[in-house]
């Protein structure tokens, strides 16, 4: 009886809002559902509770969220089925409405009518909230307990276990613990091979594994896993996932020296991001194309592109990427031995302040470029100082190759100053870092 009352309330309110906005049923239904479905819903004769995906599509066109819809028509959440509430939590998480998500999670945790599988789903949703709100340690503890529980079950749910391991990988990844992220993504990927057919979760896991392999410079593995993710995203028509995969594949092909493939992938990802109106990522794809591809053929044009992007980032309020674009343009200027322009660009980048700057890999890169610039203009003390700062920051986030690059600048600076003993000590540190990277690349 309650479900019928909910359907009538939902239908009446949607009809009211639709007419208020001057939309026909066909206009509101377009892209969300069929007109006949909407007609039945508005009349209150649809036989069951509509899916939240459909309701969210309708609500988006009417300018409110599903949660706001339920609140406006005074639907008592306790009367809703558990699966509907679990879906509603997912909607709130997607919309970054974390307080509302936590509120429903707390309500469901107190209910006694949840099945074991539903409690597992609820724990996964809580873990997603914890990760999104940067409570990584709590997320790892919760997910580890859930992993152990699932593994002890006689008839384990492989799909859910893979999801748990994938989220564990996410929590470790955002903690900058790349090795633990890699281990969990790899285990999750192995479980996806047991799936009846590849699905969105399998694609996401392959994407995450490829991305962390890229960071660790396991280039062959990164390419294989990202190509696999690309193929699945194409089959299931998941365009945003596909755009991101093309973007990171471009970086992998750049890393292995295939600049022709990298160029095409950067262009394709930018076009796809723009079609999805994800303009920030479209700008980053253009940034990579300008820096890695265009700068080789037409350095002045590449610098112009990077400066345009810096201006766009400034207008968007994205100070970290504004500084990063200046640093990239400075590096291209250094390669052209245009030290005057490089100096001005580095001053602009260094002057910019933003939250989290001292923990940002983009800032570590800025310091690396600054170290190279000051070495070339014979300001050795400043070069050594910036090189060590850059190396330390890259080391904290486990970017070993970039760390080694920064330390090598310090070695050259010491040699330039005739301090060969100090240079030798740092060279040994470089060897240690590269040996660690080589050992990692030999992991099974």
Automatic annotation (TrEMBL):
A matching Pfam family: TPR_12
Annotated keywords: Coiled coil, TPR repeat
Gene3D superfamilies, sorted: lambda repressor-like DNA-binding domains, Tetratricopeptide repeat domain
Superkingdom: Bacteria
InterPro entries to which the protein is assigned, alphabetical: Cro/C1-type_HTH (IPR001387), HTH-type_regulator_Rgg (IPR053163), Lambda_DNA-bd_dom_sf (IPR010982), TPR-like_helical_dom_sf (IPR011990), TPR_rpt (IPR019734)
CDD domains named among the record's database cross-references: HTH_XRE
TPR repeat extents: 243-276
Coiled-coil annotated residue ranges, if any: 105-156
Domain HTH cro/C1-type as annotated: residue spans: 14-69
SUPFAM superfamilies: lambda repressor-like DNA-binding domains, TPR-like
Protein name from the UniProt record: Tetratricopeptide repeat protein
Organism this protein belongs to: Tumebacillus lipolyticus
